[in-house]
Amino acid sequence: MKQIGVLLVALSALVFAGCTTQPRVETDHQADFDFSSLKTFDVAETKQDTKDSILVSPFTLSHIHSALEGELGKRYQNAATGAKPDFIVSYHVVIEEKIDPRSYDDLYGFGYYGRPYRYPSPFFHGPGTGLRVYNQGSLIIDVVDAKTEKPIWRGVSEKRLSRSMAPQQQREVLSRAVTEVIAQFPPVN
């Protein structure tokens, strides 16, 4: 009996993990750049200067900074204080309010166990529309060649965010986004 309980818990965890939306990650890079020459990095401080980023907590930005240093530190060396790095990483967080228009038919509903049924009254018939307002979070990571000061790589992660997320939950989502974006760096030609 105990084995069945453990199996049900494990199965539930897999089902819930499959229901979470994964962030969408896109990257772009300078095609003729030699990424194998990069050895040292520095993460630049971000500025909260636009209306889209002013709502992001400074503690969350500090967390992203640390997550970037940790992920990049696994493959590259952090530049010593005063030394010029090979590349500089900057990041931006944008949280936008989006509207998702949906249409549905009021004639049908769902009963017990998800079985569809039909409302008997003609008052419920007709197409309806609904607007769903949600937050779209974007983490943008730019890599700049420190010698030429020109961008060489960009990674963007986008995900729908729940309005009820606590700051700690936001940081966990952003940490996973940092990991997923940096996993795409350097690009494979």
UniProtKB/TrEMBL annotation:
Entry annotated with the keyword Signal: yes
Domain of life: Bacteria
Pfam families: DUF4136
Gene3D superfamilies per record: 3.30.160.670
Protein keywords: Signal
N-terminal signal peptide: 1-17
Keyword set includes Signal: yes
Domain DUF4136 intervals: 25-187
UniProt-listed InterPro entries: DUF4136
Protein name (Swiss-Prot/TrEMBL): DUF4136 domain-containing protein
